[in-house]
Specification:
There is one protein chain. By secondary structure, the protein is of the alpha+beta class. It has three domains: 83 residues, RNA polymerase II/Efflux pump adaptor protein, barrel-sandwich hybrid domain (OB fold (Dihydrolipoamide Acetyltransferase, E2P), Beta Barrel); 42 residues, no CATH class; 215 residues, Chloramphenicol acetyltransferase-like domain (Chloramphenicol Acetyltransferase, 2-Layer Sandwich), CATH 3.30.559.10. The strands form five sheets. The chain has a six-stranded mixed sheet with strand order 9-18-17-16-12-15. It is flat. The two termini are 59 Å apart. About 5% of the residues have low confidence.
């Protein structure tokens, strides 16, 4: 008997999937566990394996097209089996759902219409069209004649200029006085530059599933969570020197971002209220530390998670971040790679950004925006010198974190980075 394969929900926020590629075509034999299609979700492109066995009789969507979760993705059965009844039943269910939705949506409209019928009709006044407006609107010659203002025609005649050689810059390509004034015989427009009026151009790019989810989740976060921001400047000289020494002996190259993750994990242990989540009726204080690391990809932003970051060595953090970033760029992240963050770090320092604010990544209480390291004049022990500084901004959900709580976290974080011996003394490299 023919069976329906439905579009699975492959992430907690997925509402629709796009078929990136079909690995089977109609008429192919499918066994349970066979790779059927690559599906683009809101987070990554994932492989979909069939749980059914049989012949592929029908596909519900072409490559590159989207399909809602739980809709008919495909139908498998015996070769030549009639599956039309299955599609009819699905169509009936769909129409029934649409009718119910339409009925509930039209009730308030009908009530408003009934109330409106009781009101006397409003008088509508139509403004008169001025003579000058009517003339402008009717100036649409279709007989091929040259469009030019009377003054432009007179000036062209006086200067011996052939109006057919001019591309007007007025309305609808009309030749006006400035076109005559600017005209120079024999002048050729520069290569790649049109001699005619400039035209507006644009292109529309379809919104990917990832971009839709980013828009929805961050809009919800920004307009639901009351954000406030705390910025602090950190002297990075000691940390940069320590990093150079570590990289001389470490098996994995350590980045400044790896050290930031490590410092954040240690600071979160000391300030658990920052490592929290808003649950509506309660606040969840997380005793495990899962740090999300924002990674830019072509379609937007992904946040793979470094789990139990406080229990990892610096080399383990470095290797894991590299692996997750590569998987994100290759669209190979799995749900376990991006779910469960308790705190997030977004670093734009490598792009020359000195300071910025980030939108909280739900359900986290905070996100840390990290700017670049730059050379600045600093005062140390009463003496002015040039030092390497970095600014970080903590975005806080005021429902969970107060100003003092966030400030204390930043002070601890700053102290760990400015005294890397304390930070690195917590673990082996």
């Amino acid at each position: 008997m023919a069976e329906i394969i439905r579009m699975p929900k492959m992430s907690d926020t997925m509402t629709e999937g796009v078929i990136a590629k079909w690995h089977k075509k109609i008429g192919d034999e499918i066994k349970s566990g066979d790779l059927v299609a690559d599906i683009e979700t809101d987070k990554a492109t994932m492989e979909f394996e069939s749980y059914q066995s049989g012949t592929l009789l029908y596909v519900g969507v072409e490559e590159g097209k989207g399909i809602p979760v739980n809709a008919v993705l495909a139908i498998v059965g015996k070769p030549g089996e009639d599956y039309s009844q299955l599609l009819k039943e699905e169509e009936k269910k769909s129409k029934s759902t649409v009718k119910e939705t339409a009925k509930s949506a039209t009730q308030p409209v009908q009530q408003a219409a009934t109330a409106a019928e009781k009101q006397p009709p409003a008088k509508v006044s139509v403004p008169a069209v001025s003579q000058s407006s009517a003339v402008l609107e009717s100036y649409q010659p279709s007989d091929g004649r040259i469009k030019a203002s009377p003054l432009a025609k007179r000036l062209a005649s006086e200067k011996g200029i052939d109006l057919s050689r001019l591309q007007g810059s007025g309305d609808s390509g009309r030749v006006i006085k400035r076109d005559i004034d600017w005209f120079k015989p024999g002048l050729v427009p520069p290569a790649g530059r049109s001699s005619g009026p400039l035209k507006e151009r644009y292109e529309e790019i379809p919104v990917s599933q990832m971009r839709k989810t980013i828009a929805r989740r961050l809009s919800e976060s920004k307009f639901t969570s009351p954000h406030f921001y705390l910025t602090i400047e950190i002297l990075m000289d000691s940390l940069l020197a320590a990093r150079e020494q570590i990289n001389a002996v470490a098996n994995v190259r350590i980045s400044v971002n790896d050290l930031i993750i490590k410092a954040a994990a240690e600071a979160l242990k000391q300030h658990p209220k920052v490592n929290a989540s808003w649950m509506g009726e309660s606040i969840r204080i997380n005793h495990h530390i899962h740090i999300g690391v924002a990674v830019a990809v072509d379609e937007g932003l992904l946040v793979p998670v470094v789990r139990f970051a406080d229990h990892l060595t610096l080399s383990e953090i470095a290797q894991l971040v590299k692996d997750l970033a590569q998987k994100a760029k290759d669209k190979k992240l799995q749900p376990q790679d991006w779910e469960g963050n308790t705190f997030t770090i977004s670093n734009l320092g490598m792009f020359g950004i000195e300071e910025f604010t980030a939108i909280i990544n739900p359900p986290d209480a905070c996100i840390l925006a990290v700017g670049g390291v730059k050379q600045s004049p600093v005062v140390v022990n009463g003496k002015l010198r040039i030092g390497s500084t970095m600014k970080v901004t903590l975005s806080c959900d005021h429902r969970i974190v107060d100003g003092v709580t966030g400030s204390k976290f930043l002070q601890t974080f700053k102290g760990l980075l400015e005294s890397p011996v304390i930070l690195l003394g917590q673990y082996s490299i």
